[in-house]
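Data's thin. Show one?
=====
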Amino acid sequence: MTSTKSAIHHYQQTQFTTSDRGHILLLMFDGGLRFLGLARRGLEQGDLVQFGHNLGRAQAVIAELLHTLDHKAGGEIARNLERLYRFMLGRLTEANLTKNAQYITDVVRVLETIAGAYREIIEQKVPQVDAA
């Protein structure tokens, strides 16, 4: 079992290091969404350790997305993404303070929308604006 986990981890690391920027962003979005789902589940089950751990991981993903924005190349798109990422971080702070799953749901909705747009761009091989 350990060798299987190791092989999966190695595959994921290889996938991450050999992916282009768009695919790396999709991996980050998918990871953030997974962590948000786990945080919500932890909250619903009363497992505040799971909630806090995964909420923190989701916040770290969104903070990384925020800090890697290229405002020079991205212009208005980067400014709009910055506002959305800051909104999401604020909602997750509220989720942590109030233990209210609705804030997580709000963030999931926004993050799914952004991830869906990126996924569509990548699948259509549309030239990307290097904002995110």
Notes: The chain has one domain: 20-124. The radius of gyration is 16 Å. The CA atoms of residues 32 and 58 lie 5 Å apart.
